[in-house]
């Protein structure tokens, strides 16, 4: 078995210029209520880092529950972040796919040893996420979520 079990896919994440407009369109598409947007917690709580440096990003997000997978939509703020960098370089689009992991350290080691360093890191209540700079090798960024 690999470092990541493909069956643990849990998220597809988009980065967009206009969260409200995009979320409204997906809600119509799915025939569901518009999910309430929320912000990334403050850096003091989330310990958010981009390319190894702390960042005060408070990006806005909304999430659609699609069963095993959630669709996460993010509108970056002006602070440094993987989301802002992606939007500036690519416009709206798929930022990453995420997988749950039971061993974050093994995942970090694997990605770093294979030329895909940590790009973005943050914490949330109950866990953390790590985005790897895997776009060149895997076609998109890959994120692992760890919830001990």
Report on this model:
By secondary structure, the chain is of the alpha+beta class. It contains five helices and ten strands. It has helices at 19-30, 43-46, 82-90, 104-113, 135-138; strands at residues 9-15, 38-39, 49-50, 53-54, 60-65, 70-75, 93-101, 118-124, 127-132, 141-146. It has a ten-stranded mixed β-sheet. It starts with 8 loop residues before the first strand and ends with a strand. The model has no long low-confidence stretch (mean pLDDT 96).
Any chance you could write out the topology, listing elements then pairs?
Elements: E1 9-15, H1 19-30, E2 38-39, H2 43-46, E3 49-50, E4 53-54, E5 60-65, E6 70-75, H3 82-90, E7 93-101, H4 104-113, E8 118-124, E9 127-132, H5 135-138, E10 141-146
Parallel strand pairs: 1-6, 7-10
Antiparallel strand pairs: 1-7, 2-5, 3-4, 3-8, 5-6, 8-9, 9-10
Key features of this structure:
globular, ten-stranded mixed β-sheet, 10 strands, alpha+beta, 148 residues
Order of helices and strands: EHEHEEEEHEHEEHE
Main beta sheet strand tally, sense and closure: 10 strands, mixed
Percentage of residues in DSSP E strands: 35-45%
N/C terminus separation: 21 Å
Average pLDDT figure: 96
Order of strands across the main sheet: 2-5-6-1-7-10-9-8-3-4
Shape designation: globular
- Distinct helical segment count: 5
Helix content class? 25-40%
| Helix/strand/pairing category | alpha+beta
- Pick out the low-confidence regions: none
Radius of gyration: 15 Å
In total, the number of strands is 10
């Amino acid at each position: 078995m690999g470092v990541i079990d493909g069956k643990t896919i849990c998220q597809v994440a988009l980065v967009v210029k206009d969260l409200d407009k995009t979320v409204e369109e997906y809600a119509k598409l799915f025939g569901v209520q518009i999910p309430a947007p929320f912000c990334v917690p403050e850096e003091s709580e989330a310990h958010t880092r981009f390319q190894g440096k702390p960042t005060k990003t408070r990006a806005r997000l909304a999430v659609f529950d699609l069963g095993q997978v959630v669709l996460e939509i993010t509108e970056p703020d002006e602070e440094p972040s993987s989301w802002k960098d992606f939007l500036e370089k690519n416009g709206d689009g798929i930022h990453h796919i995420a997988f749950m992991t039971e061993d974050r350290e093994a995942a970090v080691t694997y990605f770093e040893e294979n030329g895909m360093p940590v790009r973005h890191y943050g914490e949330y209540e109950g866990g953390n996420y790590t985005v790897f700079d895997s776009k060149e090798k895997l076609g998109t960024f890959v994120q692992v979520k760890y919830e001990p």
